[in-house]
Specification:
Shape: globular
Helix content: 25-40%
Order of helices and strands: HEHEHEHEEEHEEEHEEEHEEEHEHHH
Number of strands: 16
Strand content: 15-25%
CATH architecture of the largest domain: 3-Layer(aba) Sandwich
Distance between the termini: 57 Å
Strand order of the largest sheet: 2-1-3-16-4
Largest sheet: 5 strands, mixed
CATH topology of the largest domain: D-Maltodextrin-Binding Protein, domain 2
Protein backbone atom coordinates (compact mmCIF):
# COMPACT_ATOMS: atom_id res chain seq x y z
CA UNK A 1 0.00 0.00 0.00
CA UNK A 2 2.81 2.37 0.92
CA UNK A 3 4.71 1.52 -2.26
CA UNK A 4 1.60 2.19 -4.31
CA UNK A 5 1.10 5.56 -2.62
CA UNK A 6 4.72 6.55 -3.20
CA UNK A 7 4.43 5.54 -6.82
CA UNK A 8 1.29 7.63 -7.19
CA UNK A 9 2.96 10.65 -5.63
CA UNK A 10 6.03 10.19 -7.81
CA UNK A 11 3.92 9.94 -10.95
CA UNK A 12 1.88 12.97 -9.93
CA UNK A 13 5.00 15.02 -9.28
CA UNK A 14 6.48 13.90 -12.59
CA UNK A 15 3.33 14.90 -14.40
CA UNK A 16 3.37 18.26 -12.64
CA UNK A 17 6.99 18.84 -13.64
CA UNK A 18 6.24 17.93 -17.24
CA UNK A 19 3.19 20.17 -17.30
CA UNK A 20 5.11 23.07 -15.79
CA UNK A 21 8.02 22.56 -18.18
CA UNK A 22 5.65 22.35 -21.16
CA UNK A 23 3.87 25.51 -20.05
CA UNK A 24 7.17 27.35 -19.83
CA UNK A 25 8.17 26.10 -23.26
CA UNK A 26 4.80 27.03 -24.74
CA UNK A 27 4.34 30.81 -24.33
CA UNK A 28 1.87 31.09 -27.22
CA UNK A 29 -1.80 30.15 -27.14
CA UNK A 30 -2.33 27.73 -30.02
CA UNK A 31 -5.70 26.45 -28.82
CA UNK A 32 -7.54 28.21 -31.65
CA UNK A 33 -5.59 26.40 -34.36
CA UNK A 34 -7.20 23.39 -36.03
CA UNK A 35 -6.05 19.95 -34.90
CA UNK A 36 -4.68 17.96 -37.81
CA UNK A 37 -7.10 15.34 -39.09
CA UNK A 38 -6.22 13.71 -42.42
CA UNK A 39 -8.77 14.32 -45.15
CA UNK A 40 -7.35 11.43 -47.14
CA UNK A 41 -4.71 8.75 -46.92
CA UNK A 42 -1.67 9.67 -49.02
CA UNK A 43 1.59 8.01 -50.00
CA UNK A 44 4.72 8.60 -52.05
CA UNK A 45 7.64 10.99 -51.72
CA UNK A 46 7.55 14.73 -51.02
CA UNK A 47 10.68 16.48 -52.29
CA UNK A 48 11.57 19.67 -50.41
CA UNK A 49 14.29 22.14 -51.42
CA UNK A 50 15.20 25.57 -50.11
CA UNK A 51 16.17 27.49 -46.99
CA UNK A 52 18.81 25.86 -44.79
CA UNK A 53 17.59 27.89 -41.79
CA UNK A 54 14.43 25.76 -41.66
CA UNK A 55 16.22 22.43 -41.47
CA UNK A 56 15.25 21.69 -37.86
CA UNK A 57 11.61 22.66 -38.12
CA UNK A 58 11.32 20.74 -41.40
CA UNK A 59 12.63 17.65 -39.58
CA UNK A 60 9.95 18.11 -36.91
CA UNK A 61 7.23 18.61 -39.54
CA UNK A 62 8.25 15.50 -41.44
CA UNK A 63 8.39 13.35 -38.30
CA UNK A 64 5.03 14.63 -37.07
CA UNK A 65 3.32 14.24 -40.43
CA UNK A 66 4.50 10.64 -40.83
CA UNK A 67 2.77 9.70 -37.57
CA UNK A 68 -0.49 10.34 -39.42
CA UNK A 69 0.69 9.46 -42.93
CA UNK A 70 3.30 6.69 -42.51
CA UNK A 71 3.36 5.85 -46.22
CA UNK A 72 4.84 9.25 -47.10
CA UNK A 73 8.60 9.65 -47.46
CA UNK A 74 10.62 12.86 -47.66
CA UNK A 75 13.62 13.89 -49.74
CA UNK A 76 14.92 17.11 -48.18
CA UNK A 77 17.70 19.31 -49.58
CA UNK A 78 17.83 22.60 -47.72
CA UNK A 79 20.86 24.47 -49.00
CA UNK A 80 19.63 27.99 -49.74
CA UNK A 81 16.46 30.01 -50.18
CA UNK A 82 17.78 30.95 -53.62
CA UNK A 83 17.38 27.32 -54.74
CA UNK A 84 13.73 26.88 -53.73
CA UNK A 85 12.01 28.17 -56.86
CA UNK A 86 14.63 26.94 -59.35
CA UNK A 87 14.06 23.45 -57.90
CA UNK A 88 10.32 23.81 -58.49
CA UNK A 89 10.85 25.12 -62.03
CA UNK A 90 13.23 22.30 -62.94
CA UNK A 91 10.88 19.65 -61.58
CA UNK A 92 13.17 18.26 -58.87
CA UNK A 93 11.07 19.56 -55.95
CA UNK A 94 7.42 19.49 -54.94
CA UNK A 95 7.87 22.16 -52.27
CA UNK A 96 10.19 25.14 -52.05
CA UNK A 97 10.89 26.62 -48.60
CA UNK A 98 12.01 30.25 -48.49
CA UNK A 99 13.31 32.39 -45.67
CA UNK A 100 12.44 35.62 -47.43
CA UNK A 101 9.81 37.06 -49.73
CA UNK A 102 9.69 35.97 -53.35
CA UNK A 103 11.37 38.38 -55.78
CA UNK A 104 9.62 39.55 -58.99
CA UNK A 105 12.17 37.85 -61.28
CA UNK A 106 11.74 34.57 -59.37
CA UNK A 107 7.98 34.88 -59.74
CA UNK A 108 8.39 35.52 -63.46
CA UNK A 109 10.42 32.32 -63.85
CA UNK A 110 7.63 30.22 -62.28
CA UNK A 111 5.01 31.91 -64.46
CA UNK A 112 7.04 31.26 -67.60
CA UNK A 113 7.35 27.55 -66.79
CA UNK A 114 3.90 26.81 -65.36
CA UNK A 115 1.82 29.69 -66.82
CA UNK A 116 0.63 30.45 -63.30
CA UNK A 117 2.17 31.89 -60.13
CA UNK A 118 3.07 29.38 -57.40
CA UNK A 119 0.82 28.56 -54.49
CA UNK A 120 2.39 30.67 -51.75
CA UNK A 121 1.79 29.81 -48.09
CA UNK A 122 3.04 31.41 -44.87
CA UNK A 123 4.25 28.54 -42.67
CA UNK A 124 5.57 30.48 -39.67
CA UNK A 125 6.39 33.96 -38.52
CA UNK A 126 10.03 35.03 -38.55
CA UNK A 127 12.35 34.92 -35.56
CA UNK A 128 12.53 37.94 -33.27
CA UNK A 129 16.26 38.46 -32.81
CA UNK A 130 18.14 35.38 -33.98
CA UNK A 131 21.30 35.93 -36.06
CA UNK A 132 21.46 34.34 -39.52
CA UNK A 133 17.72 33.73 -39.63
CA UNK A 134 14.88 35.88 -40.95
CA UNK A 135 13.95 38.66 -38.52
CA UNK A 136 11.63 41.70 -38.42
CA UNK A 137 12.96 45.08 -39.42
CA UNK A 138 13.42 47.64 -36.66
CA UNK A 139 13.99 51.35 -37.27
CA UNK A 140 16.94 52.79 -35.35
CA UNK A 141 18.19 56.33 -34.75
CA UNK A 142 21.10 57.64 -32.68
CA UNK A 143 20.46 57.51 -28.93
CA UNK A 144 20.55 61.34 -28.73
CA UNK A 145 17.72 61.74 -31.25
CA UNK A 146 14.57 63.07 -29.50
CA UNK A 147 12.30 61.07 -31.83
CA UNK A 148 10.52 58.09 -30.26
CA UNK A 149 8.19 56.93 -33.02
CA UNK A 150 7.70 56.96 -36.77
CA UNK A 151 5.14 55.93 -39.42
CA UNK A 152 5.56 53.86 -42.56
CA UNK A 153 4.64 56.93 -44.64
CA UNK A 154 7.41 58.92 -42.98
CA UNK A 155 9.85 56.09 -43.71
CA UNK A 156 8.82 56.33 -47.35
CA UNK A 157 9.56 60.05 -47.21
CA UNK A 158 12.99 59.53 -45.63
CA UNK A 159 14.27 56.48 -47.50
CA UNK A 160 12.32 56.84 -50.72
CA UNK A 161 12.04 59.30 -53.57
CA UNK A 162 9.80 60.43 -56.42
CA UNK A 163 8.42 57.36 -58.21
CA UNK A 164 5.91 56.75 -60.99
CA UNK A 165 4.36 53.62 -59.48
CA UNK A 166 4.94 50.28 -57.78
CA UNK A 167 3.97 46.61 -57.94
CA UNK A 168 0.76 45.29 -56.42
CA UNK A 169 0.89 42.86 -53.50
CA UNK A 170 1.07 39.87 -55.84
CA UNK A 171 4.02 41.49 -57.67
CA UNK A 172 2.28 40.94 -60.99
CA UNK A 173 0.66 44.28 -61.92
CA UNK A 174 2.34 47.71 -62.02
CA UNK A 175 0.16 50.25 -60.20
CA UNK A 176 0.59 53.96 -60.91
CA UNK A 177 -1.40 54.71 -57.77
CA UNK A 178 1.53 53.34 -55.78
CA UNK A 179 3.67 56.23 -56.97
CA UNK A 180 4.20 59.56 -55.25
CA UNK A 181 5.61 63.02 -55.91
CA UNK A 182 8.81 64.68 -54.72
CA UNK A 183 6.71 66.78 -52.34
CA UNK A 184 6.55 63.73 -50.08
CA UNK A 185 10.33 63.63 -49.64
CA UNK A 186 11.56 64.10 -46.05
CA UNK A 187 15.16 65.21 -45.95
CA UNK A 188 15.59 67.14 -42.67
CA UNK A 189 14.76 66.31 -39.07
CA UNK A 190 12.70 69.51 -38.90
CA UNK A 191 10.26 67.88 -41.34
CA UNK A 192 9.84 65.18 -38.71
CA UNK A 193 8.83 67.77 -36.14
CA UNK A 194 12.18 68.17 -34.37
CA UNK A 195 13.25 71.65 -33.29
CA UNK A 196 16.32 73.45 -31.98
CA UNK A 197 19.65 72.11 -33.19
CA UNK A 198 17.88 69.27 -35.04
CA UNK A 199 15.55 71.40 -37.15
CA UNK A 200 17.84 72.05 -40.12
CA UNK A 201 19.98 68.93 -39.89
CA UNK A 202 19.94 66.64 -42.92
CA UNK A 203 18.76 63.08 -42.31
CA UNK A 204 21.36 60.49 -43.28
CA UNK A 205 19.74 57.12 -44.15
CA UNK A 206 21.70 53.86 -43.97
CA UNK A 207 20.68 50.71 -45.82
CA UNK A 208 21.99 47.63 -47.57
CA UNK A 209 23.02 46.72 -51.08
CA UNK A 210 20.19 46.18 -53.56
CA UNK A 211 21.69 43.24 -55.45
CA UNK A 212 21.90 40.42 -52.92
CA UNK A 213 20.40 41.67 -49.66
CA UNK A 214 16.80 40.61 -49.24
CA UNK A 215 16.25 43.24 -46.55
CA UNK A 216 16.44 46.03 -49.12
CA UNK A 217 13.91 44.28 -51.36
CA UNK A 218 11.56 43.68 -48.45
CA UNK A 219 11.89 47.25 -47.19
CA UNK A 220 11.01 48.65 -50.62
CA UNK A 221 8.11 46.25 -50.97
CA UNK A 222 6.56 47.27 -47.66
CA UNK A 223 7.47 50.94 -47.51
CA UNK A 224 7.57 52.03 -51.17
CA UNK A 225 4.46 50.03 -52.11
CA UNK A 226 6.42 47.88 -54.51
CA UNK A 227 8.41 50.78 -55.96
CA UNK A 228 12.18 50.91 -56.20
CA UNK A 229 13.22 54.56 -55.97
CA UNK A 230 15.51 55.35 -53.04
CA UNK A 231 16.80 58.53 -51.43
CA UNK A 232 19.85 59.58 -53.46
CA UNK A 233 21.82 60.10 -50.22
CA UNK A 234 21.30 56.53 -48.96
CA UNK A 235 24.53 54.86 -47.84
CA UNK A 236 24.49 51.22 -48.99
CA UNK A 237 26.40 48.69 -46.92
CA UNK A 238 27.51 45.22 -47.93
CA UNK A 239 29.66 42.43 -46.52
CA UNK A 240 33.19 43.61 -45.70
CA UNK A 241 36.20 42.73 -43.60
CA UNK A 242 37.66 44.15 -40.41
CA UNK A 243 41.31 45.11 -40.01
CA UNK A 244 42.05 41.67 -38.56
CA UNK A 245 40.57 39.98 -41.63
CA UNK A 246 37.37 38.79 -39.95
CA UNK A 247 34.03 39.31 -41.71
CA UNK A 248 32.17 42.55 -41.04
CA UNK A 249 28.49 42.13 -41.77
CA UNK A 250 26.48 45.04 -43.23
CA UNK A 251 24.21 44.84 -40.18
CA UNK A 252 27.17 45.42 -37.85
CA UNK A 253 28.48 48.18 -40.12
CA UNK A 254 25.09 49.88 -40.04
CA UNK A 255 24.94 50.04 -36.24
CA UNK A 256 28.55 51.17 -35.97
CA UNK A 257 27.96 53.98 -38.48
CA UNK A 258 24.71 55.05 -36.83
CA UNK A 259 26.37 55.08 -33.41
CA UNK A 260 28.76 57.73 -34.75
CA UNK A 261 26.13 59.73 -36.67
CA UNK A 262 23.66 61.71 -34.55
CA UNK A 263 21.59 62.56 -37.61
CA UNK A 264 21.36 59.10 -39.12
CA UNK A 265 18.58 56.53 -39.39
CA UNK A 266 18.74 52.84 -40.30
CA UNK A 267 16.65 49.68 -40.59
CA UNK A 268 18.13 46.55 -39.04
CA UNK A 269 17.46 43.65 -36.67
CA UNK A 270 17.09 44.00 -32.91
CA UNK A 271 19.97 41.55 -32.39
CA UNK A 272 22.39 44.12 -33.84
CA UNK A 273 21.37 46.94 -31.49
CA UNK A 274 24.18 48.70 -29.61
CA UNK A 275 24.16 51.07 -26.65
CA UNK A 276 24.60 54.05 -29.01
CA UNK A 277 21.35 53.59 -30.92
CA UNK A 278 17.68 53.27 -30.02
CA UNK A 279 14.67 51.65 -31.73
CA UNK A 280 11.56 53.61 -32.68
CA UNK A 281 7.94 52.55 -32.21
CA UNK A 282 6.24 52.07 -35.57
CA UNK A 283 2.75 52.70 -36.97
CA UNK A 284 1.15 52.49 -40.38
CA UNK A 285 -0.32 56.00 -40.09
CA UNK A 286 -0.21 58.95 -37.71
CA UNK A 287 -3.48 57.72 -36.23
CA UNK A 288 -1.53 54.84 -34.71
CA UNK A 289 -1.31 52.64 -32.84
CA UNK A 290 2.47 52.95 -32.48
CA UNK A 291 3.91 49.54 -31.66
CA UNK A 292 7.32 48.70 -30.26
CA UNK A 293 9.18 45.70 -31.65
CA UNK A 294 8.93 42.88 -29.10
CA UNK A 295 8.69 39.14 -29.49
CA UNK A 296 4.99 39.34 -28.57
CA UNK A 297 4.15 42.12 -31.04
CA UNK A 298 5.98 40.26 -33.79
CA UNK A 299 4.21 36.97 -33.07
CA UNK A 300 0.74 38.54 -32.90
CA UNK A 301 1.59 40.68 -35.96
CA UNK A 302 0.61 43.99 -34.42
CA UNK A 303 4.10 45.21 -35.29
CA UNK A 304 4.06 46.48 -38.92
CA UNK A 305 7.45 45.18 -40.02
CA UNK A 306 7.09 41.45 -39.34
CA UNK A 307 8.26 38.89 -41.88
CA UNK A 308 7.19 35.33 -42.65
CA UNK A 309 8.68 32.03 -43.65
CA UNK A 310 7.24 30.79 -46.92
CA UNK A 311 6.34 27.56 -48.67
CA UNK A 312 5.78 27.44 -52.44
CA UNK A 313 4.18 24.67 -54.44
CA UNK A 314 2.81 24.27 -57.96
CA UNK A 315 -0.83 24.02 -58.94
CA UNK A 316 -0.86 23.67 -62.71
CA UNK A 317 -3.64 25.17 -64.84
CA UNK A 318 -5.97 25.75 -61.93
CA UNK A 319 -5.87 22.11 -60.80
CA UNK A 320 -5.85 21.11 -57.15
CA UNK A 321 -2.55 20.64 -55.40
CA UNK A 322 -1.10 17.15 -55.46
CA UNK A 323 -2.87 15.36 -52.52
CA UNK A 324 0.23 14.49 -50.47
CA UNK A 325 1.50 18.07 -50.80
CA UNK A 326 -1.87 19.48 -49.79
CA UNK A 327 -2.09 17.17 -46.77
CA UNK A 328 1.43 18.13 -45.68
CA UNK A 329 0.58 21.83 -45.90
CA UNK A 330 -2.56 21.20 -43.87
CA UNK A 331 -0.37 19.54 -41.23
CA UNK A 332 2.05 22.47 -41.11
CA UNK A 333 -0.90 24.82 -40.62
CA UNK A 334 -2.40 22.68 -37.87
CA UNK A 335 -1.91 23.03 -34.13
CA UNK A 336 0.58 20.16 -34.26
CA UNK A 337 2.51 21.82 -37.08
CA UNK A 338 2.76 25.13 -35.26
CA UNK A 339 3.72 23.36 -32.03
CA UNK A 340 6.70 22.06 -34.03
CA UNK A 341 7.58 25.68 -34.81
CA UNK A 342 7.52 26.48 -31.09
CA UNK A 343 9.61 23.39 -30.38
CA UNK A 344 12.24 24.56 -32.89
CA UNK A 345 12.62 27.61 -30.68
CA UNK A 346 13.70 30.35 -33.09
CA UNK A 347 10.75 30.93 -35.39
CA UNK A 348 7.38 32.09 -34.06
CA UNK A 349 4.06 30.32 -34.64
CA UNK A 350 1.32 31.72 -36.83
CA UNK A 351 -1.81 33.30 -35.39
CA UNK A 352 -5.20 31.70 -35.87
CA UNK A 353 -6.24 34.39 -38.37
CA UNK A 354 -3.17 33.79 -40.54
CA UNK A 355 -3.64 30.01 -40.42
CA UNK A 356 -7.27 30.29 -41.53
CA UNK A 357 -6.26 32.56 -44.40
CA UNK A 358 -3.59 30.11 -45.59
CA UNK A 359 -5.96 27.17 -45.41
CA UNK A 360 -8.39 28.96 -47.71
CA UNK A 361 -5.64 29.18 -50.32
CA UNK A 362 -5.27 25.40 -50.61
CA UNK A 363 -8.91 24.41 -50.22
Amino acid sequence: MIKKYCLTVTMTLAALVLTTTDACAQPWDLSGLPVYSPKEKVSGTIRVHGNNGQETVMKYWAEGFRRYQPEVQFEVKLLSTALALPALCSGVADIGLMGREIWPMELLAVQRVFKNPPVTIEVSTCTFDKPFKTYPLVIFVHKDNPLSRITMEQLDGIFGSLRSGGWDEAKINWMTENGRGADKNIRTWGQMGLTGEWKDKTIQPYGFDFTRNGLSTYFAERVFHGGDKWNEALIELSMGKKADGSMFSPQEQSMEALGKDRYGIAYNGMQYRTSLVKPLALAWTEAGPYVEATKASVQDRSYPFIRSMWLHAIRENGKALEPRVREFIRYILSREGQEAVVREGDYLPLTEAVVRKQLRIIE
